[in-house]
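Lecture 7 notes. Example A: sequence first, then its structure tokens.
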Amino acid sequence: VQLVESGGGLVQAGGSLRLSCTGRETIFAVNTLAWYRQAPGKQRELVAVITSSGSTNYANTVKGRFTISRDNAENTMYLQMNRLTPEDTAVYYCNLAYSWWGQGTQVTVSS
């Protein structure tokens, strides 16, 4: 299973970024997807989850600022991140079915 993330970068506090995760396998569209992140010196943490039917759940730290979505026809998942803060700086990882991981994309928020 190959997952490819994109969309990371450097942004000022208060700005926005949209991350994408694309998979080629058919199981992508029928499984739960999630975004995790890992900041330097910290454990990897769950950011947002979306089920195959579109139900979502968010970490309290991002609720109201981040939106997870998916396009099953395109085998793509998104994470729209608004009102970013320096505390959101981390490597963001795409996860499929709580089993497979992407390579990660760096998000850096400057103050």
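Example B, a different protein, same format:
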Amino acid sequence: QVHLVESGGGLVQAGGSLRLSCESSGRTFRSYVMGWFRQAPGKEREFVAAISPSGDRLYDADSVQGRFTISRDNAKNTVYLQMNSLKPEDTAVYYCAQRNRYYSGSVPRSSGGYDYWGQGTQVTVSS
């Protein structure tokens, strides 16, 4: 069983920045794709970003391109989401997810493609 723990959420003004962290308890963290998703009230959970096991390939949603950056530190079993130029529409609960399957060179952008989830961290952007 893998446990994921997110941290770093909070309240920030529009245009500000936050850095989310997610630590995994899995011993083979370095072997798997990690992702970030978010869910706003009344909306479905949506893909934000993902990163390959080695960290050399990044994937992100159009809505956050150029503003959010995913990264990972395999020595620390941790994945990060640096969020800059935040907008009120970025307000949501942010979840990290781990995909414990062979990496084929692409990543799923639906929540069903991930096997383990954190409890979520709230990000609120005020206008």
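Note on Example B: The radius of gyration is 14 Å. The chain is about 0% helix and 45% strand.
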